[in-house]
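seq as requested:
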Amino acid sequence: MAKVLNVCHCETTPTHWCSVLRRGCLPHRLVGEAADGDAAERMLATRRPDLVLLDLASFGKGADELCRRLVAAEDAAGVSAPVIALAPRLDDDERAELLDAGASGYVLSTIDEESMSVALQAIADVADAGTKVNGGPPNDEAQRGFLATNL
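struct tokens:
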């Protein structure tokens, strides 16, 4: 049985996934929401989530920098919560930039709720093991499924 994850969600405007988390449609708990970087940093220290879902559509080109800030804030607060990027699509360069900025992985926002739940758990489990998603092109079926979240 999968662990119930405490999720903090960072976005500037409500999205489908925010609504899904708020309604409890996933077997994970929404423990915090932040609309900007300062609020996200405070949320990490006070809510101590298991993972942070960073909505890239909300932050645009500033998402890489916000990801760096969140990873630094986690270190300062003694929190170990993987930052998971949420995007409708990512090209190879965007994926590499996010992983270089400290993201533990990404989830495509176009997937269904069951796949989202599995993807969040899988990325959290990999992060708990101290590894990161390979930023290069997927080279086998398992990695391709993980990166594209077609689980």
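The longest strand covers residues 29-34.
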